[in-house]
Amino acid sequence: MVTVWSVLMLASAVVALTLATGLTVAAWGGRRDGLRTWALALALQALACGLLGWRAQWPVLWVTVGGGMLASGALACVLAAIARQQEQPMPWGAVVPPPLLLGLVLLPWHADLGLAAALVGTVLAGQCAWVLWNLLERRFALPERGTALVATGLGGLMATHTALAVAGLAGLPDPQSLLTDPMVLIPGVLFALASWLVATVGFVLLHSHQGRRRSQVLAALDETTGIANRRSIIAALDRDVARAIRTRLPMAVLMLEPDLLGEDTGGARQDGESLLCSMVELVQNRIRSQDIVGRYGACELLLVLPDTSAQGAARLAEQLCDAARDLPPLPGGTPALTLSVGVFGGRLEPGDSWDQLIHAADQALEQARQYGGNRVHTTATLGRMAHAGMMTSSHATFPTSLH
Fold this sequence. Notes:
Elements: H1 4-27, H2 35-53, H3 60-85, H4 92-95, H5 97-106, H6 113-136, H7 145-170, H8 177-180, H9 182-219, H10 230-247, E1 251-258, H11 267-270, H12 272-284, E2 292-295, E3 301-306, H13 310-325, E4 339-346, H14 354-370, E5 376-379, H15 384-390
Parallel strand pairs: 4-5
Antiparallel strand pairs: 1-3, 1-4, 2-3
């Protein structure tokens, strides 16, 4: 005989299975960022609903113990999916034990519907609370719509399972009414299904936001060195120039180039990327957290130093040159890395712009090269007339567009 309970549970199973299939297809071949794990959670929930929907066809032991373990496993997978999405270590201690322990506890009490409901509701509500804590622990300072929706869905599931536990303990009015009374059954099942849907939509939003953030980060980085690319370092310089003009604090810019990459030395060019990466590591180990280094050209690095005088920038440049000379030779006898550095530093005036600073540092770098390389050349002249069109602009120094 088909009952309201059977129809609702089977409908819930179909909805959950459909969502699981869709998420699996969407995540196929992608990163392990939790989407497939969430799909597994939905599949387990679908199995639990299907088993409960056809409870008349199965032994009570299978329905009670199996349904409880499947529902608990679904929430365990939700916890695992959130851990993957947040790129945290997998919390195996909170993923594996709950379904197994619930199954063991239900074995001797599976025939007592009221007690079984209380046990299942308590464990599932506790799992929901634990998942909520892991979700929100690192998100209070950065609220997102996806996080809010997942939290709302999990909160709804926790409320549903808590009500199940209370009803099982109180026997309202009879444990069998949990499966037969439409006034209890229909709102509970629909509310649980809606909670799963809201949480799933929220997780998909989180996945989408994470993908966009990852794309933005990759778009801002140079593939070879892992530092800011040309567009990003110019944007950072433009921002810091505006700040320096507003605060009247000095700032400095360094343009660095490995001498070997500036020469047509045949085999040395094959080591170009290695030398460039060595220079990046050398710079990153000696700058402050507020300083920014980026790849400006094929073999040029641009270093932006806020709140730094020309003297301070020159000292840093000398330290970088000394450290470069101390690097061991590359395999094959390639000479040790040496650097030419152009430095501009000083206070800026209203109307000064990022391209003028780059031009000044680039001219200083050219002077360092002309004197034989492996040296630092400093200038305090910004060349403000250049911005008015008195100098011939170049594509390298004055890019016509950042797009």
